[in-house]
Amino acid sequence: MQYMLIYSETAEDFALRDDPAQAPAYWGAWSAYIGSIAQAGVMVSGNGLQPPHAATTVRVRDGRRQVQDGPFADSKEHLGGYVVIEVPSLDVALDWAARSPSSVSGSTEVRPVLPPPPAPAG
Amino acid sequence: MSDAVRSAIESAAREAYGRLLAWLAFQWRDVAAAEDALADAFVAALRTWPVNGVPASPEAWLMTAARRNLLQVARHQRLSRDPAVTVLLGDDSAPEVSLPSLPDARLKLMFVCAHPALDASVHAALMLQTVLGLDARQIARAFLVPAATLAQRLVRAKKKIRDAGLRFEEPEGPELDARLEAVLEAIYAAYGLGWDANGPDTTVPAADDLGSEAIYLARLVVGLMPGSAEARGLLALLLFCEARRAARFDPATGAFVPLHEQDLKRWDRALIAEADQHLWQASALRHPGAFQFEAAIQSAHCQRAATGQVPWAAIATLYARLLHVAPTVGAGVAHAVAVGEASGADAGLELLDALRKQHPACADYQPYWAARAHLLAVAGRVADARAAAARAIDLSPNAPLRNWLARRYGVDPGSR
After folding, report:
1. Could you read off the pLDDT of A34-86 as tens digits, one per residue?
2. pTM over 0.95, yes/no
3. CB-CB neighbours of A5 under 10 Å
4. ipTM of the predicted structure?
5. What domains, with CATH codes, occur in chain A?
6. Is A57 helix (H, G, I), strand (E, B) or coil?
7. Are residues A108 and A100 in contact, defined by beta-carbon separation less than 8 angstroms?
8. CB atoms near residue B133 (< 10 Å)
9. Tens digit of pLDDT for each residue in B295-334?
10. Are B347 and B339 in contact (CB under 8 A)?
11. What is the 3 state secondary structure string of chain B?
């Protein structure tokens, strides 16, 4: 089954990315983690994301477009990146989630990916 | 329908339901679909056995019928993407399986039922329904929740098991202890349902008491994991409790009888001996845990039957060790009482004061106030004891307990 691991980071985590003293450790931890997923041969796809200040949220209401600066919700943790992995069970996906740097300070949500729709009846 | 056919179906249902369901769910990774297929197989048995006679192996017949149902549903839903289903689809005339050759998948099923990805409040109910085939309505009565609410929770949990792909395997390594603890906790919760709330005047009929079902599950885990000390500890604990179950209420009046006034003739000596045996086997495994300490405490209380004395100092030590591995408020209160009995009421009251500072929720915890009333009375502080007893009465779950407290401390039993 495919699962998306959704990494949520705190404002302090995002700040580490630009802190000259701590950035190497921050990126090192993520590289090691993502590298181990790739090495295990379970990576399907994935990306890191720029911090929430770079986010723009769009809603269309009554045909009118509402564009808002910032992420969709004001919360303590924000989406920092995601991967999709192919593993046999939720338990294995949870093991990968537990190893993520984001799980120590923020959180990692695990969601099964919807399977492709069945082929039309022939 | 002839009695022979009816009893063949009933005995297959009682003895094989959990084994059949566990194996089907394990193969299909879908508890709800397996339940439906097995229910349909039982309906088919009711229809065909009276005509064609009871098959040589009723369980194998049911398994074959249930698998056929699952294949038909799978074909219908075009789930043939799943390689496991594709393989089985090719195998239309699935041979009759013989059950003794099937590995017992019930432990796998129990680990799935108590999976951390499922809400802990649904673990026990899910286990009772899938492993024992209990009706959701019956479980709901014991859990004191509306049947529709429980049914909805069970459906949601089974949907998550299927859709999120929970693993149907026994956990390994460091994970095993924590996962097993969740299984044992759920069994203990199922047993406890009938314990506190049910007096003889309760609204829950005795038939709905899930005590014997919980003991069945505990025996099952011990049988499937003979090397687990905590599984044996839990079984011992449940058997000690069960041995004293009948003695908790006066047979003539239905009045509550506290542990130390219980009629020893009404304790089940055979169950106590069996419990001691399991506890001894558990401690020989040298892997102590909370259930073993709780069972050891019960064993110590049962010594009164042999010696006429309650070994309070030993009980206080056991509670201290229990608190070390499982620091619950309940164990803290019981520890304070044991210390109060062993070393004087003031020592016990000091521990209760400290506990309340640490856990303000004690203010609404019945055992805290009952313990306080007892130790204050022993210390000769009659007025304080009465005030504490009044608070305990307000918080008591059943009438016999309220009446006993009221009589003992000479206060009003209240109108609840």
Report:
1. 999 999 999 999 999 999 988 899 999 998 898 888 887 778 999 999 999 99
2. no
3. 23
4. 0.76
5. 2-112 (3.30.70.1060)
6. strand
7. yes
8. 18
9. 999 999 999 988 989 999 999 999 999 999 999 999 999 9
10. yes
11. CCHHHHHHHHHHHHHHHHHHHHHHHHHHCCHHHHHHHHHHHHHHHHHHHHHHCCCCCHHHHHHHHHHHHHHHHHHHHCCCCCHHHHHHHCCCCCCCCCHHHCCCCHHHHHHHHCCCCCCHHHHHHHHHHHHHCCCHHHHHHHHCCCHHHHHHHHHHHHHHHHHCCCCCCCCCCHHHHHHHHHHHHHHHHHHHHHHHCCCCCCCCCHHHCCHHHHHHHHHHHHHHCCCCHHHHHHHHHHHHHHHHHHHHECCCCCCECCHHHCCHHHCCHHHHHHHHHHHHHHHHCCCCCHHHHHHHHHHHHHCHHHHCCCCHHHHHHHHHHHHHHCCCHHHHHHHHHHHHHHHCHHHHHHHHHHHHHHCHHHHHCHHHHHHHHHHHHHCCCHHHHHHHHHHHHHHCCCHHHHHHHHHHHCCCCCCC
CA-atom Rg of chain B in angstroms: 25
Q: Is A58 helix (H, G, I), strand (E, B) or coil?
A: strand
Residue B102 is given by DSSP the state: S
Give the best residue of A1, A2, A90, A111 to mutate against chain B (max B CB count within 10 A): A90
Q: Containing H/E element for B359?
A: none
Residue owning tokens 């529709």: B148
The domain segmentation of chain B, as residue ranges, is: 3-101, 105-204, 226-307
Task: HSE, CB side, 13 Å, CA atoms: give it for residue B126.
Answer: 30
Give the list of residues 6+ apart from residue B339 with CB closer than 8 angstroms, or none: B316, B347, B348, B351
Distance from CA of B156 to the nearest CA of A (A): 16
Q: Which segments of B197-244 does DSSP mark as H helices, in order?
A: 211-224, 229-244
Question: Cβ of B259 under 8 Å from any chain A Cβ?
Answer: no
**What is the C-alpha separation between B1 and A81, in angstroms, rounded?**
64
d(Cα B117, Cα B23) in Å, to the nearest integer? Answer: 21
Let me know: does A102 contact A14? Beta carbons within 8 Å.
no
Closest among B113, B81, B116, B74 to A114, alpha carbons compared: B81
Residue B172 at interface with chain A, using a CB cutoff of 8 Å: no
Q: For B165-205, how does the pLDDT look when each residue is reduced to its tens digit (9 = 90+)? A: 998 888 887 788 888 999 999 999 888 876 655 554 444 44
CB B65 within 8 A of CB B41: yes
Residues of A in contact with B169 (CB under 8 A): 89, 91
Token digits of residue B47: 């229809």
Distance from CA of B166 to the nearest CA of A (A): 5
The structure tokens listed for A99 are 């190893």
Distance from CA of A120 to the nearest CA of B (A): 10
In one-letter notation, the amino acid at residue A104 is V
- Rounded to a whole number of angstroms, the distance between the first and last alpha carbons of chain A is 25
